[in-house]
Amino acid sequence: MRGLATALLLSLGLAQPAWSQEADRVPDSEILTWAAEACKAKDFTGFFGHFAQNPAVFAAHVGPQVEIRKLAAPHQLVATVAGQDYRDFKIAMVDYSWVDADSAARVEAGKSQSFEDLELTFSDLGKDSWRVGYTKAEFRGEHELVRTYGPPGAYVFAFRDGCWRLTQDLR
């Protein structure tokens, strides 16, 4: 699935590695424009690539509140966090690969030399909503999934005010 999602983003010309953005100094305003274009085209996967790799897109597209819910029982509300205070997003994109955001932060801080890859699943929930499931994964080569491990999670995005907003964190 990692390869499929990356291929989708690349084919649309919307994906760019997080580190190359910094190296190329792509202005946030341009990346926000790319995300807005993905929203206009109703291209969730294109939008999500920008959301997962750019702090300005993330900040602009977190809902006013993020509901923390149980993954096994999404109807059960655990807590609600104000959007501007939400900091627990676990997915990052580095060099066209989905990785655990905490492992990316450790690598960036020089505390680790390796990323933990993620297996993502994209589900169109209808009614202009998408669910992105994730779990840590081990791959052989670029595309062959060897195993998944650790607790899974998911995020729900709803299309509001002309674009998607992160509205739920399922744990």
TrEMBL record:
<feature type="signal peptide">
    <location>
        <begin position="1"/>
        <end position="20"/>
    </location>
</feature>
<protein>
    <recommendedName>
        <fullName>Nuclear transport factor 2 family protein</fullName>
    </recommendedName>
</protein>
<keyword id="KW-0732">Signal</keyword>
